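Entry 0007
Protein: Toxin-antitoxin system, toxin component, RelE family
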Amino acid sequence: RQTGGLRKIRMATGTQGKSGSARVIYFLATEEIIYLVMAYPKSTKDSLTDAEKSDLKKLTKLLKDEV
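Output (structure tokens):
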């Protein structure tokens, strides 16, 4: 939401399950091109701030313009 088309998935790492482990933010530009934008452990960041969402939306626009 509010990121211009980025997607977030949960990934399990080590002994933790998906809900308490890592988050991966990516942009699916085409069927062949996927941009990994950011990955972080949930223990350090629960959700993106409004400022981060705004910055990511700008980045998404740049990526869309490149494709």
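Curator remark: Strands lie at 7-11, 22-28, 34-41. The chain has a mean pLDDT of 87.
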